Amino acid sequence: MHSESFFLKIETFLKRIEEFYLKWKGKMEVILI
After folding, report:
1. pTM of the model
2. Quick one: DSSP state of residue 23?
């Protein structure tokens, strides 16, 4: 297992979490306001 592919998977995973967080945050703001 190459370390480069491992870090690439982590980077992609973090990007997915960030996108999900931003979408969830946007929904929460709409509900609260």
Report:
1. 0.58
2. H
